[in-house]
Amino acid sequence: MKATLLANHFIPILAQAAGGLAQGASKALGIVMLFGFIFGTVCVVGGGFAIRRGDTDSGKLSIIGGLIIAGAPVIVKALFTAFGIDSSTVEVGPFQ
Fold first, then answer.
1. What residue ranges of the chain have pLDDT lower than 50?
2. How far apart are the first and last CA of the chain?
């Protein structure tokens, strides 16, 4: 009785996993890329404010770090394309 109740409770959660492992990993990596882009943008803006306050060294490092964080998916896609590995799980758009 308890096992049936527990199984009925988790069936809607397991129904969301339909589509295979690759599709689930692609969605998870897409969410991680979204958070990375937002965090990178915040770092760039914070670096601009640091430069405005007069802390140029910290500001420049924050801007460079933010650009790398926000652009990481494109950088990785470029490296995959350069080395001939075009079968990535998450698509960042057409890259030529």
1. 95-96
2. 58
Report the C-alpha gap between 77 and 79 in whole angstroms. Answer: 5
Query: For 18, which DSSP code?
Result: T
* Interior angle at CA 57, CA 51 and CA 60, nearest 5: 65
Phi, psi (degrees; rounded to nearest 5) at 17: -85, 5
Are 65 and 43 contacting, i.e. CB atoms less than 8 angstroms apart?
A: yes
Give the whole-angstrom CA distance, residue 37 versus residue 31. 10
- pLDDT for 77: 78
State whether the Cα torsion 65-67-71-76 is positive or negative. Answer: negative
Domain limits, the chain: 37-85
